[in-house]
Each structure stands twice: as C-alpha cells, then as structure tokens.
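Hi all, long-time lurker, first post. I run a small reading group and we've been trying to get comfortable going from sequence to structure in the token notation. Rather than ask abstract questions, I figured I'd post a concrete chain and ask someone more experienced to write out its structure so we can walk through it together at our next meeting. Sequence below, copied exactly:
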Amino acid sequence: MNRTGQVPFGKRDRLIAELTEQIRSGRLARGEQLPGENQIAETYQVSRGTVRSALSELQRQELIATRSGVGSFVTFDGVTLDQTVGWATALADSGFDIETELLSIERTTDAELTERFGIAEFVAIRRLRRDRTAGPVSVETSLIPATGELRDLPEKGLLDGSITATLLSAGLRAGAGDQLIGTKALTAEMAALLERTAGELFLQAVRTSVTADGELVEQVTSLLDPNRFQFHLTFGRP
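-- Answer (accepted) --
Happy to help. Here is the structure in token form:
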C-alpha cells in the first residue's frame, strides 16, 4: 500500500537548515569555529550522529571545513575562488589571512617542458604560503621561460614582487591552459617547509598556462594542505 502526503522534515534536515541559515546570513562568519559536536547536540536536542551527518552535508556544500582534532570552521563567504590564478593565490585574494614568502628564484631546466614548448631553460620561482594563525598551507614552484628580460630574474627579482606583473611586462598573458590534480607524499625537504611529517599526503596541482598562440606562460606545481583545499567538480544541470 502506497502512502502519499508530505515527507516529514527530520532532525538532521532541520539542523542543516538552521546552520546553513546562520552561515549564509553572516551570523556565523567566515573563519569562525562552530561549537563542538556535544554542544550542538545539546543545543538542538539531537544525537551526535545526527550532528556529524549534518556537518558532513555542510562540508559537501562547501559551507564549512573540518580540521581533524581541531573542529569545524566556516569557509563560506559568498566568494568563488578564481582557479585561473591558482588555488593558493585565489585563497589569499578572497580575503583569507595568507602571507607569501619568496624562497628562491633560480634558472633551471625541465626536459618535459622543453620537449613540449621548445624552450631550453626556465626560471624557477618557489614560494611558501602561510596562514598567519594555522601555519603553512602550500608550497608552489613556478616555471617560466628564461627568455628575454625574464632570464635575468634571479639577479633582478620580480616586478613589484608579483609573478603575474612580471609576466605581463614581458608580454606574456595566459589565454588557456590545463590542470592536473592528484596527491603526492611529502619529501623530507617539503615536509620541513610545511611543518609536516615526511611521507604525509598532500594535494598536488600542476597548472600549465599558455598564450592564445600556445606559447608557454607559466607552469605552477602546488602542494596544498588537504585540510584547507578541495577540488569540486560538477556535471549536468541542477
């Protein structure tokens, strides 16, 4: 026998709706830590299992992020990260308290890029990005063509401390590109920079930008803290 009628609005759904409203209205602001599971369960008279399920849904909707052993924090700010400039740059540009440390600028070679673009030498620029409260969140290595004025970057430095400004001044503007995403175990060197343990898995994003004519602009390899970054792909129509 089939029963028709209104589907009950369960405790989990009510909790999700209440927390979502608080986040989207700004009552729970970006960066603010949510109360612990026990406190939420007591406040809303639900089980801890219901709380965990609701928080999991909020994380799926990219409203919060959960750090193991620390708690859940609001990440929603109404701003979509612009992945065309790189994940860590987009995070910083969106208002997160991120500082960037330039580690090195040096000339180098890369056989794969040489074969692909016919460029013999590159300038490698390595930067560390750090959350002022939570510590390092990423290490990025940018490879750009060591041609023309760009070849002297190890001696002259970046224009206004910006890779983008430096590339634009050399007439290189990204018009297309591709990005590969995976995981990579931290080497001892990377683990020391990121204040983590060697062998720990980090997200790795390799983003290659080219001009409208297909010339290399920049290849950026980023190691990203998986507790701070995630990649969300969508398909179909809602």
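A couple of things your group might point at:
The longest helix spans residues 11-25.
The two ends are 32 Å apart (CA to CA).
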